[in-house]
Amino acid sequence: MDKPNFYIDLEKDFPEFINSLENLGKVAKKTANLDEKTIQLVQLAAACAIGSEGAVHSHTRRALQAGATNNEIIGVCIALVSTIGFPKVAAAISWVRDIIK
């Protein structure tokens, strides 16, 4: 998966920070004891909830790579409507569609 330019810049400027961040992610995934597809769908839901377009794009890509279907990804967004509200869900679905079109 291609890394965004800002991430590449951070890796160059602050390699110890990025290494620590990546290790934290690996340990968290291992500790969660979930399959990769489930982890990516959970992280997608969190990205939708905080309204982060970049994170929704990233976790949509990662969910697809982990075997999630387009309908599962959209379903994750729709399932959040009673928790985060329709405007955030609509925005998240538009960001998901940027990737799955």
Automatic annotation (TrEMBL):
**Matching Pfam families:** CMD
| Record field: transmembrane | none
Q: Which GO terms describe its molecular function?
A: peroxiredoxin activity
The UniProt record lists the Carboxymuconolactone decarboxylase-like domain at 15-97
Q: Which InterPro entries did the record assign?
A: AhpD-like (IPR029032), CMD-like (IPR003779)
Q: Does the keyword GTP-binding apply?
A: no
* The keyword Oxidoreductase belongs to this UniProt entry's keyword annotation: yes
State the UniProt keywords alphabetically: Oxidoreductase, Peroxidase
Query: In terms of domain of life, where is this protein from?
Result: Bacteria
Q: What is this protein called?
A: Alkylhydroperoxidase AhpD family core domain-containing protein
* Species of provenance: Desulfurella multipotens
